[in-house]
Design goal:
Layout (H helix, E strand, L loop, with lengths): L8 E3 L5 E6 H28 L5 H17 L3 H7 L2 H5 L30 H23 L3 H13 L7 H13 L3 H14 L5 H13 L3 H9 L9 H14 L2 H9 L10 H13 L3 H12 L16 H5 L21 H25 L3 H21 L2 H4 L8 H30 L7 H5 L3 E2 L16 H19 L6 H10 L8 H4 L10 E5 L5 H9 L4 E6 L2 H14 L4 E5 L2 H8 L5 E7 L21 H10 E11 L2 H14 L2 E3 L14 E3 L2 E5 L15 H5 L9 E7 L2
Parallel strand pairs: 3-6, 4-5, 4-7, 5-6, 7-8
Antiparallel strand pairs: 1-2, 8-12, 9-12, 10-11, 11-12
Helix pairs in contact: 5-6, 5-7, 6-7, 7-8, 7-9, 8-9, 9-10, 9-11, 10-11, 11-12, 11-13, 13-14, 13-16, 14-16, 16-17, 16-19, 17-19, 21-22, 26-27
Length: 723
């Protein structure tokens, strides 16, 4: 990697070098963070000055804060421990700690706020107050504080006698969705109809987002079809549904939805085309991807409102209309738009994305000449961005454009370039004879795609019935056809898949890799593998061990699968499904040598202990199942950039008492010494090395994403199973 051995690298507090980031990056980060904080404060002050009536409650809370701090012992440290004390104390004198999160228990209210019997000033006060509480509920939803959001909602109705709006309900719905409480989200939608507050398109889209998180494509389809006049699906709802289809690998439902866009009067945008094109390529529908590219170039999707009788679009006149082609008002083409440069870049990215997907599908189906043709097209579109604009500064075109979104888009473009190089390199190796053509069915025969849904966990020690096992074998084969484009009857693949599942429903890893039962080879399993970059590189570096990547999202399983095909690795397999369910139900005890978790997603980014997330993977139950699957002295290695979360995980592992300390080293080969020890579990700062199972360093997507200086610290835990 390029940063190893660099003299200009950041220094950690104890004078240890931080080899994965340069001092220039660190200095730029500090300067940018300071400038961003100053800019944010200026925007907040300007908004407060322009809308003082919206912050009456906040100012009263601030005046009460010193008194509250004095009563509680005060101090900055205590406020930090208690979280946002002003918000928690602002719930009022009435004790709402016992508020139930079941929407069926919420108090009834009028369908909407009327002006009858109140002055205009009072109506405006109530409107502003409901808006303020809606923002507070939205904040709680972002922090995954479901109970607090419900408390705010109940107080609004019960204590203040106000009427929530559809947007208030949508904010509360988001709290249920973000915490994975989909039964509560569905009950809240039913309550909206019960009180006469009809859900709006925001509510439906939020519910679709929830089904995206739990990967329930059937429920998402039912919700989409339930959107009738006057609340029809809009572009955001359609794109959310397409993301559900992509995550679950359901091409058939995506094709059906795409064919109904004209019925819903929705014009697809670049996101729609990217999602649909990815699904087609993932299903190896190469001709359909070509047709999609052709239809976009011919403008078959265009539906612009050019009739001045519709009335001018005020947003367009101001310089930017977010609705784009779906706007129902007149867009005067003589008016320059602030996002014109961004739209050119997005269009180039779209065609590059589609050509890369097409080349990708062609490469793994052995059409190397066609692959090279589409790679050339993709490179030309990416080169246009380089020639015309500076993509790192032009994206968004607005002074206050969200920096993270800008960084994401720039990183995504860099990822496209890396994908071009990877596919082109594979095609060149095959055409030159350095690598043989991929035998796709051999890779299919060791690829298992379980359900992407978050399923009800079975009790420990229970086994599957013979009927359930046969159903599972059939479902795994069908998933390869529906998600990965396995064509024909594929009887050889069907037989191979059946052999991988034992009669009790557990996995036969010896059959997966064609080994003998007594063959003493390491079996290493990466959980939440993302795109599979890391595990594939480990498998290439250590051909004497077998490697498996397990990922929930089916679109990422396809990415992992394709990487294995392109690299020609025979000691690697891709698996899809909920890791918690797979470990509990399908992995035998003491069958795995090492389990790796790289850059796990925290259950809540805020770090607030009041947050709740039923979708969190790394729990005590999960670690017990991991422990059961590991051989004696088998390793569990967790690698992350989130110090707070790693401390939480270290404490959780220490409290379990089933893991023990083992030797660790850094990627440089230096013996690792912990930066701190929590509940007996050492936490290291740096990049893990060979003793921790990391054969070679492979820069992950997250490393590349934060390379510009945001999350620059790295931490890891390396423990062994004690049996």
């Amino acid at each position: 990697p390029r940063w190893y051995g660099e003299p200009a690298c950041a220094i950690m507090p104890k004078r240890k070098k931080r080899p994965w980031v340069s001092t220039d990056v660190l200095d730029a980060t500090k300067a940018r963070s300071s400038a961003k904080a100053t800019e944010r404060k200026a925007r907040e002050k300007a908004f407060r000055d322009a809308n003082p009536e919206r912050f009456i409650e906040d100012e009263e809370s601030e005046r009460r804060a010193p008194e509250s701090n004095a009563l509680d012992g005060g101090g900055k440290h205590q406020n930090k421990q208690r979280g946002d004390s002003r918000r928690s104390n602002h719930l009022g004198a009435e004790d709402l700690s016992g508020v139930d999160v079941d929407p069926k228990t919420f108090p009834m209210h009028e369908p909407w706020q009327t002006r009858d019997g109140i002055t205009s000033e009072e109506f405006e006060r109530r409107r502003a107050r409901v808006e303020a509480v809606t923002r507070e509920i939205g904040t709680s939803a972002r922090h995954k504080q479901l109970r607090k959001a419900c408390q705010l909602f109940v107080r609004l109705i019960q204590s203040e006698g106000l009427v929530p709006t559809p947007y208030t309900y949508a904010s509360l719905l988001n709290a249920y969705v973000n915490t994975g409480t989909m039964d509560g989200a569905e009950a809240l939608m039913a309550r909206m109809w019960e009180v006469g507050c009809a859900p709006n398109v925001v509510s439906y889209t939020t519910l679709l987002k929830g089904y995206l998180l739990v990967a329930n494509v059937d429920a998402a389809k039912h919700t989409l079809e339930g959107m009738k006049h006057p609340v029809l699906p809009d572009l955001r709802a359609i794109n959310t549904y397409m993301r559900v289809c992509l995550r679950c690998g359901d091409l058939a439902k995506a094709i059906d939805a795409y064919g109904r866009l004209s019925e819903w009067d929705v014009v697809p945008d670049t996101s729609t085309f990217k999602l649909f094109g990815r699904l087609l390529a993932q299903g190896l529908k190469i001709d359909d991807v070509k047709k999609l590219i052709k239809s976009i170039k011919h403008g078959e999707h265009l539906k612009w409102t050019n009739d001045p009788r519709c009335g001018p679009c005020q947003f367009w006149r101001a310089g930017k209309c977010e609705r784009g082609l779906n706007c129902r008002y007149y867009h005067d083409q003589t008016i320059a738009q602030r996002d014109a440069g961004e739209r050119v870049i997005e269009q180039n990215d779209l065609f590059a994305h589609l050509h890369i997907n097409c080349a990708h599908a062609m490469s793994i189906t052995s059409d190397m000449k066609g692959c090279k043709k589409h790679i050339k097209k993709a490179s030309e579109y990416l080169a246009e961005d380089d020639d015309d604009t500076d993509v790192h500064t032009a994206i968004g075109g607005e002074q206050n454009k969200d920096e993270r979104a800008k960084l994401y888009k720039a990183t995504h473009r860099d990822e496209l370039r890396l994908e071009v190089k990877r596919i082109e390199s594979f095609a060149d190796r095959v055409l030159s004879g350095a690598q043989s053509l991929p035998l796709l069915n051999e890779h299919f025969a060791r690829t298992l795609i379980f359900s992407s849904r978050i399923l009800q966990m079975p009790a420990r020690g229970t086994t599957m019935s013979s009927e359930s096992v046969e159903t599972l074998r059939s479902d795994l084969f069908t998933a390869l056809q529906n998600t990965m484009g396995l064509s024909g009857k594929g009887e050889s693949v069907r037989k191979s898949i059946s052999k991988l599942i034992a009669d009790d429903g557990t996995l036969r890893f010896d059959k997966m890799f064609g080994r003998k039962k007594n063959d003493a080879r390491e079996l290493n399993l990466e959980v939440a593998a993302g795109n599979g970059d890391w595990a594939v590189e480990q498998a290439k570096a250590d051909v004497g061990a077998d490697w498996i990547s397990l990922e929930l999202r089916h679109d990422r399983v396809y990415s992992i699968f394709s990487r294995a095909v392109c690299e020609g690795t025979s000691n690697f397999a891709a698996m899809g499904g909920d890791a918690a369910y797979v470990f509990r139900r399908h992995i035998k005890e003491s069958s795995v040598s090492n389990v790796f978790v790289n850059f796990p997603e925290p259950p809540h980014h805020s770090g607030d202990t009041q947050a709740d997330n039923s979708l969190a993977l790394l729990t005590e139950d999960f670690f017990r199942d991991v422990h059961a699957s590991l051989q004696n002295e088998g390793g569990l290695i967790i690698f992350s950039d989130n110090h707070r979360y790693m401390r939480t995980l270290a404490r959780m592992l220490g409290d379990l008492g089933v893991f023990t300390v083992r030797d660790a080293d850094f990627s440089s080969g230096e013996v690792a010494t912990p930066c701190e020890t929590i509940a007996g579990v050492p936490l290291y700062e740096g990049v893990p090395g060979c003793k921790c199972g990391h054969r070679v360093f492979q820069q992950s997507y997250f490393d590349r994403f934060w390379e510009n200086g945001q999350h620059i610290d790295r931490f890891f835990i390396s423990v062994a199973a004690r049996k």
